[in-house]
Automatic annotation (TrEMBL):
The lineage of its organism: Bacteria, Bacillati, Bacillota, Bacilli, Bacillales. NCBIfam families: thiamin_ThiO. Keywords: Oxidoreductase, Thiamine biosynthesis. InterPro entries: FAD-dep_OxRdtase (IPR006076), FAD/NAD-bd_sf (IPR036188), Gly_oxidase_ThiO (IPR012727). It catalyses: glycine + O2 + H2O = glyoxylate + H2O2 + NH4(+). This is glycine oxidase. It is an enzyme of class 1 (oxidoreductase). Residues 5-351 form the FAD dependent oxidoreductase domain.
Amino acid sequence: MTQHVLVLGGGVIGLSCAFELRRRGFGVTLLEQGRCGGQASGAAAGMLAPYSENVEEPDAFFRLCLRSLNLYPDWQLAVKEASGLDFEYSATGSLYVMYHDADVQAMESRRLWQDGHGAKSELLDAAELRRLEPHIAPEAIGALRYPGESHVYAPDYVKALEEACRRTGVVIRDGLGPVDILRWQDGAEVRSPASGETYRGDILLVANGAWAGLMEEAFGMAIPVYPIRGQICAYETPEMPVRHMVFCSQGYVVGKRNGTLVCGASEDVAGFETTVTRRGIARLESWNGKLFPFLGGMRPFHEWAGLRPATHDGFPLLGRLRRSDSLLFAAGHYRNGILLSPVTAHVVADLLEGRDSSGPELAPFEPERFGVRA
């Protein structure tokens, strides 16, 4: 008999899991309190950059990110084919810019371990950097180049995922408002007080991002997932003056095919508030002109914010509960939801199919690691 999965959350993680589960023959109903892709997913810059954004050591999180990057070429084609929609997937590579001689030694140390994990990085001097990025600030003395990193245009990617889910037979119920968990230890039952409807299944997958942290009482466990407001701005640059994803210690700048240059991200703790603030955008403006001087005289044409689901230890909650075969978590991906979407979907589907999904590698992401109530 076909198992039916209730997926709680319609962000990039919930949509990706729903799509992969449906591809493998599961019945899937996705429940979203607002609109699909309405928070961190649609607001993301869409960078697929595990080397640039994980700079300290090859820990379990880095390995999960790298595994997901390697899935992306086939994954994005599958989403496009299933949805009938196109979205930008650009293998531009990335540059991590250096300003001081002391940065060179740090970059060399990073190369030592990252190249052992397939980075194929290249340390560029100032002349080589300016050949690749002619508009870079004159103060930059070089960069570490990662040719294998890429990015997607997140709003279109999330729309394609939603359409792929619908076309493959995922039942999507959005606009539900907060839901009540009626049953999760032996099967799954979820009720929407706003609609009065009750949804039943064999499995419940919690993939509702920052809102997972509000469900501690329902599941009798600590779920330290908190919303971090990330503010981003974009500039109109039809001549595409930036060719790569460009990182520095303060943030990133990435050009999109639609002629926009995205700059991010300014973060703060503001609960579930998604209002854009002048202070937040000013933080971005304070440094991006030092990276690309032409930005110093420009004003963003678009400013937005999304809620990033952060955990205490920086690792997502991913896997089954020890107390129930009916409940799985895929939440708390913080800034890496877009990058981690294919690997999370594969891990969840593998677990439900009883396949080996690298059990020891998943141990650091165990959902009950923060404690269970007696």
